[in-house]
Amino acid sequence: MKIIMVDIDQTICEYSDKTNIYSEAIPIKENINKINKFYDEKNYIVYYSSRGGTTNLDWYELTKSQLDKWGCKYHELRLDKPHYDLIIDDKSKRIEEI
To answer: How far apart are CA 26 and CA 10, in angstroms?
Structure first.
């Protein structure tokens, strides 16, 4: 079993107006299906986001509700992702590479 960390915004959902109003997020079903496949293959899925990371607002319930409504299969939801502009990681892949 692999632990797979999956970012939420701009990975499994997008915004039509590019303002990132979380309640208006639009699911990207093709990408959700890719992650659900990993879940079905017995991997441990952790969705994570920096929602609220700079504002200290609690977006947990809204985010969990969205994941459930969109049919996301996962084991854990974390909103403690640090805010950054660039991440460099040898284990990183973009959703388009999966």
So the answer is: 10
Tens digits of per-residue pLDDT, 78-91?
Answer: 999 888 888 888 88
Q: CATH: 3.10.20.600, 3.40.50.1820, 3.40.50.620, 3.40.50.1000. Which one for 3-97?
A: 3.40.50.1000
Does an H or E element contain 6, and which? strand 3-7
Q: How many angstroms from the chain centroid is the CA of residue 81?
A: 11
Closest CA to 63 of 55, 50, 37: 50
Q: Please report, for residues 10, 14, 31, 34, 94, the alpha-carbon distance to residue 27 in angstroms, rounded to integers and kept in the order given.
A: 9, 7, 9, 13, 17
